[in-house]
Amino acid sequence: MDVRSLRYFIAAFEGGSISAAARRCHVAQPSISTALSQLEEQLGTPLFERHRRGITPTEEGQRLYPLAQKVSEDLQTITRLFRRPSPVMPVRLGLMRSLGANRMTTLLKEYIGQGDNLALTLVNPEEPCDARIIGEQELATQEAFQPIWYDRYRLALPGGHPLLLKGRITLDDLEGLPFIWRHPCAAMEQLADALNEAGVRCQVRARLRTIEYTLGLVAAGIGASLVPTWPEILARHDVQCRPLEGLDIHQTIGVAYPARGATPALAPLLALGQQAWEAKGRGGIVR
């Protein structure tokens, strides 16, 4: 029995699926499946029940889990006791506004967890930094780009708004509509171009920089706005999101980094970005 098989078992147990374990351990799904099968063969008992929605630990799997955890923790303790401290690797990461707190927290937690010697400093994307998480349209000529997320945008309206009763909402419906405008925002710029071309003028009631404040004003009935279809936004009950007929507003978010001479400390972040982009067949498109 090897330590790697136990690590894969723990990841599968906690993740509830082979795919989740593969993402967590940064390996292909067949590697997880093979290791678990070998572990089950060595122990002479099935550890998981496989089904279409994932895996469920058997009674024997439940018994193994705390033992596997203890072995893993003991090995980490031994490693820390005898490992020489690595030099600190400082990384300055520029973040554009309105990236989504939930997904950014998850990404940064996984990135920081890649190594004990990473010292991360978050700055504005226009400040000197080693890499930037920005929209692809903001990419500089000397930067390479690893996409992470693909965001679609919808019209956000307060609950009970008359436009919610319509089967479809068009640009003409925005004529004179009280609106909360965000700047800077590439999606808002796309909307502004479409409105100008259609000769439509909405009534700007407020200009803000963050999505959080924008959603608050929309919920309060101050005006409509344009927001990304993040799960936490779609789950709100005080704000309803609807597509604009014939208008597909979107942007790709990712890591912009020097095409030459990038710090090696960025490698785990780029790998995480690639995994997120491939996980849902185009970086987790939210429709």
TrEMBL record:
GO terms for cellular component: protein-DNA complex. The keyword Transcription applies. It comes from the Bacteria. Signal peptide: none annotated. Pfam families: HTH_1 (PF00126), LysR_substrate (PF03466). SUPFAM superfamilies: Periplasmic binding protein-like II, Winged helix' DNA-binding domain. Keywords: Activator, DNA-binding, Transcription, Transcription regulation. Residues 1-58 form the HTH lysR-type domain. GO terms for molecular function: DNA binding; DNA-binding transcription factor activity. PANTHER family: HYDROGEN PEROXIDE-INDUCIBLE GENES ACTIVATOR, TRANSCRIPTIONAL DUAL REGULATOR HCAR-RELATED. Belongs to the LysR transcriptional regulatory family. This is LysR family transcriptional regulator.
